[in-house]
Each structure stands twice: as C-alpha cells, then as structure tokens.
Amino acid sequence: MSHFENEKRVQKKLAQITVFQVILVLSLPSYAQIIKKVEPSQVLTWIGFGCIVATIISAYFYKQRLKRNLVLIRTREENSQNKKAS
C-alpha cells in the first residue's frame, strides 16, 4: 500500500472516530432523560454513563494513536522522497 493510500485510510478512520465521539456526547442528555423515566435506580444510570464516558475516552486514545501513525506515515514518505532526491 502506498504512503498516500495509508494516509487517506488513517484520515478516514480519524473522521469516523470524531463523528462517533460527537454522537456519543450528544446522546448523553437524551440517555439521562430516558433513564430517569424508565429506571429510577441511580446505579444503572451511573453504569450507563460510565460506559459511555469510557467509550469516549477510549476513542480519544485511539484517535491519538492514529494521529501518531499519520505523522509516522508522513515522516516515512518525506524520508523516502529525500533519499530518492539525493
């Protein structure tokens, strides 16, 4: 796979994760309303919120790893172009 294809693939994943995180954050208020109506137990509410927050955090760390990979891909591409030029 070429550097360009790798870079596009990583950028696509970054965009997908960003959309996923936005959807999760926007779903928190509606999740809270549903839980208040359906389940008066605070335990399930906190478990649900904990799962959503854990997912958001893990997506954040995955995004950071993808960003590092993107920098690595670009660095390798620059190095290979420099070697070809010299």
The tally of beta strands, per DSSP, is 0
Report how far the terminal alpha carbons are from each other. 24 Å
Structural class of the secondary elements? mainly alpha
Tell me the series of helices and strands, N- to C-terminal.
Answer: HH
Rg over CA atoms, rounded to whole Å, is 20 Å
In DSSP terms (H or I, runs of 4 or more residues), the helix count works out at 2
Quick summary:
With 86 residues, this protein is mainly alpha-helical.
Written overview of the protein:
The chain is an all-alpha fold and 86 residues long. The model has no long low-confidence stretch (mean pLDDT 84). It is rod-shaped, with a radius of gyration of 20 Å. It has helices spanning 3-38, 42-85. Helices cover 93% and strands 0% of the residues. The relative contact order is 0.15.
What keyword list fits this structure?
86 residues; mainly alpha; rod-shaped
Question: What are the SSEs and their pairings?
Answer:
Blueprint: H1 3-38, H2 42-85
Helix pairs in contact: 1-2
